[in-house]
Design goal:
single chain; alpha/beta; TIM Barrel; 8-stranded parallel beta barrel; 8 strands; 39% helix; globular
């Protein structure tokens, strides 16, 4: 493994919030600096496509399936929308949450209209939900579509969101996705590195990226890690994959310097017990530096394998 990513508390975190920021960051990352993010924001982004159909456990149709997994599995944080947290967190009180503050559906395609996803609520609303209910809300999230003709709107909102989150002692994660008619190849490694650097310029603590797949996926990944600097790179898990193949790719990403992982469909489309064990396996590689063999043992219920 390359050197463990560690945060430097950003200077826009006020002195009276720096200890709280560091505590939340360490809790998210198990004190190792790498984040295992369970991404559950697809209920809006992909509507019901990811939650119903062939090969998807029927329980996945119920939003609480996500919360049950987050309660049972080993995770760094669970990212989902404010409304779901307000509805379900009372029954899943100890889950560490990241509140996703913008989302859009996939119905409008880039050829029809350039992507635009505006902020729904203020960061202060998140802090109020946290404080009034004693919830473990550790951060906020926001998606920027670089290359969209509306990118200036999202860049401005993202910068303000990151700054306000830091003022309130919370971390900020930016989903940085090149997308729109100006972007011919969304997963070009050089462009992904640019997106990582843009996230760093916005002050993000972590950037979630759609990293290239395939046998040569890690070729050039050093450019991405260098471009992100002190901002941790989270590689998106993508579509449903064979468990061993998924864990092998994840291990390669962490070994190459990724600051963590962000996984949604590959976790929540499974039955609860298996989804929770898959969380354990992903966490073991991402945070603990476990081998693929060790992670497969956790997945199969044999940690000594």
């Amino acid at each position: 493994m390359k050197g463990t990513y560690r945060t430097t508390v950003p200077l826009d975190v006020p002195p009276d919030q720096r200890e709280a920021f560091q505590e939340r960051f360490d809790r998210m990352t198990g004190g190792k600096g790498r984040l295992m993010l369970f991404a559950g924001d697809q209920k809006m982004e992909h509507l019901n496509d990811d939650f119903h159909g062939e090969g998807i456990d029927p329980d996945d149709g119920d939003p609480e399936h996500l919360f049950r997994i987050a309660s049972r599995g080993r995770i760094g944080a669970f990212a989902t929308q404010f409304g779901l947290i307000a509805r379900y967190a009372a029954n899943h009180h100890d889950v560490p949450y990241v509140v996703k503050l913008n989302s859009k559906t996939h119905l409008v395609k880039p050829l029809q209209a350039e992507p635009l996803s505006r902020q729904w609520l203020a960061v202060d609303d998140v802090a109020a939900l946290r404080d009034e209910n004693d919830l473990d809300i550790v951060g906020v999230g926001y998606t920027v579509y670089l290359g969209s003709e509306h990118e200036a709107v999202m860049l401005t909102e993202a910068a303000q969101l990151v700054h306000r989150a830091h003022r309130l002692g919370m971390t900020a994660i930016l989903w940085m996705y090149p997308r729109g008619r100006a972007v011919p190849v969304e997963r070009d490694m050089h462009l992904i590195a640019g997106a990582a650097g843009a996230g760093a310029c916005l002050g993000a603590d972590f950037v979630k990226l759609n990293c290239p797949g395939g046998p040569d996926a890690m070729k050039g990944f050093d450019e991405v890690v260098r471009a992100a600097g002190r901002t941790g790179v989270l590689c998106s898990g993508g579509s449903h994959k064979d468990e061993r193949a998924f864990l092998e790719r994840l291990h390669q990403q962490i070994a190459a310097g990724a600051g963590g992982s962000a996984t949604g469909r590959n976790i929540h489309q499974r039955p609860l017990d298996k989804a929770a064990r898959f969380c354990d396996a992903i966490y073991a590689i991402t945070v603990d530096g476990a081998s693929v063999r060790e992670a497969m043992g956790l997945l199969q219920g044999d940690p000594g394998a």
